[in-house]
Design a protein that fits this description.
Number of domains: 2
Shape: globular
Distance between the termini: 53 Å
Largest sheet: 8 strands, mixed
Strand content: 15-25%
Structural class: alpha/beta
Order of helices and strands: EHEHEEEEHEHEEEEEHEHHHHEHHHH
Number of strands: 14
CATH superfamily of the largest domain: NAD(P)-binding Rossmann-like Domain
CATH class of the largest domain: Alpha Beta
C-alpha cells in the first residue's frame, strides 16, 4: 500500500513522517510554504521522545500523481475543505482507491461515500501543532497517537487492516472497529472545547462554557438515541501522556491554531455546529454551541486574534451561565 497524505499540516505531517520513517512509501499533497519547505528539505516531526526527519515526495495537487491501484488516501484536510479535496481526487482519476477520513466531526465520511465506494472513518487522538513550515510537533508519549479505523458503509475492512498494520509499524496504537460512529460521537464531544479555546482560551474561566457545550451535546444524543463509546475502553485501556517538547510551543486546539495562523477558515461549523444542526432537527436547544460557533466564524471574518474575546462579552451573550 502506497499512502497519499492529502493535507500535510499538523496531523497529516505527523502521520507522513512516521509512516515514511517506518518504510511506507508516502506522497504528500501540501500547499504554500509547507509545500516549499518539504520539497526543499523534508519534514521534521518533533516529539517528547526525540525528533524524526523524513524526505518524501510531495505535490501541490492530486492530478500531479500517477495513481496506482494500491494507493490509499489519508484525507487530513479540515472538514470545510473536504468537498473540494474529494472533487479534486475524483477529477484526478481516483476511483476504487480507499479514502480514509482522518478528520474531526461526523460529516466527512458521508461526503466521501457520495463520491467513492471504499471509505473509512478514522478517529485519531493525537495532540499536534503546526509549528513552522517544515516542522510539526506531537506531544503524546510513548506513542504519537491513538488511531481507530472503521469501514463507512458496506464492504470488507481489508484496507483498514492493512493501514492498521502500517500505523503500528510507524509507532501508533491502532485499532479496527466494526462501527466507528460511536467513537466519532465521543470525539465530537471532546472537540466542542475547540471553539471555546479559539474564542477565549482555556483554563478555569472557560471550563463552565466547555461543560455547558458538552451538556447540550449529551442532551441531543439522548434525544437521538446515540450512545458514544468510551475512548479508553475502545483502546484496550491504553492511556498516552502529554509531555512537553523542549523549545516547542505549548500547543492548543486545532481551531485556535487556525485563527493564530490566519488560515482564513475554521472548522467549528462542523464541530459545535454539528450539535446545533442535530439540536434544531430534534427540537433540543443548543445556545452555547451556536454562540461559540458563530463567534469563531466572526473572528475569522474580522481577522481577530485567537483567544481574544473578553469574558464580559461572553457573559453578556450567555447570561444563564454567569
Amino acid at each position: 500500500m502506497r499512502v497519499i497524505v492529502y493535507g500535510v499540516g499538523a496531523i497529516g505531517g505527523a502521520m507522513a513522517v512516521a509512516l515514511s520513517g517506518a518504510g511506507t512509501e508516502v506522497i504528500g499533497i501540501a500547499r504554500g510554504k509547507q509545500l516549499e519547505a518539504i520539497r526543499a528539505d523534508g519534514l521534521t516531526l518533533r516529539t517528547p521522545d526525540g525528533d524524526k526527519h523524513q524526505r518524501f515526495a510531495v505535490v501541490a495537487k492530486p492530478d500531479e500523481i500517477e495513481w496506482r491501484p494500491d494507493d490509499a488516501i489519508l484525507l487530513t484536510v479540515k472538514t470545510q475543505d473536504s468537498l473540494g479535496a474529494l472533487e479534486a481526487l475524483r477529477a484526478a482519476g481516483v476511483t476504487e482507491q480507499p479514502i480514509f477520513c482522518v478528520q474531526n466531526g461526523i460529516a466527512n465520511d458521508d461526503m466521501a461515500l457520495r463520491l467513492f465506494p471504499h471509505v473509512y472513518g478514522v478517529m485519531i487522538e493525537m495532540p499536534v501543532t503546526f509549528a513552522t513550515p517544515g516542522e510539526v510537533v506531537a506531544y503524546y508519549s510513548p506513542k504519537p497517537g491513538l488511531v481507530h479505523i472503521g469501514r463507512h458503509g458496506a464492504g470488507d475492512d481489508k484496507a483498514g487492516q492493512t493501514l492498521k498494520t502500517l500505523l503500528e509499524q510507524a509507532g501508533f496504537a491502532a485499532f479496527v472497529q466494526p462501527d466507528l460512529r460511536p467513537l466519532r460521537y465521543a470525539k465530537l464531544i471532546m472537540n466542542l472545547a475547540n471553539a471555546v479555546d479559539a474564542v477565549m482560551g482555556g483554563g478555569e474561566t472557560a471550563k463552565p462554557y466547555v461543560e455547558a457545550a458538552r451538556a447540550e451535546a449529551r442532551a441531543v444524543y439522548e434525544k437521538a438515541g446515540i450512545v458514544p463509546m468510551d475512548l479508553i475502553a475502545a483502546s484496550d485501556g491504553l492511556r498516552l501522556t502529554v509531555r512537553p517538547v523542549p523549545g516547542a510551543p505549548a500547543g492548543g486546539s486545532s481551531s485556535a491554531q487556525s485563527l493564530a495562523r490566519g488560515a482564513g477558515s475554521i472548522e467549528t461549523d462542523y464541530l459545535n455546529g454539528e450539535i446545533v444542526l442535530m439540536g434544531r432537527r430534534l427540537g433540543v436547544p443548543t445556545p452555547v454551541n451556536a454562540w461559540f460557533a458563530n463567534r469563531a466564524q466572526a473572528m475569522v471574518r474580522n481577522g481577530e486574534a485567537a483567544r481574544s474575546v473578553d469574558i464580559e462579552q461572553i457573559r453578556a451573550a450567555l447570561p444563564h451561565l454567569v
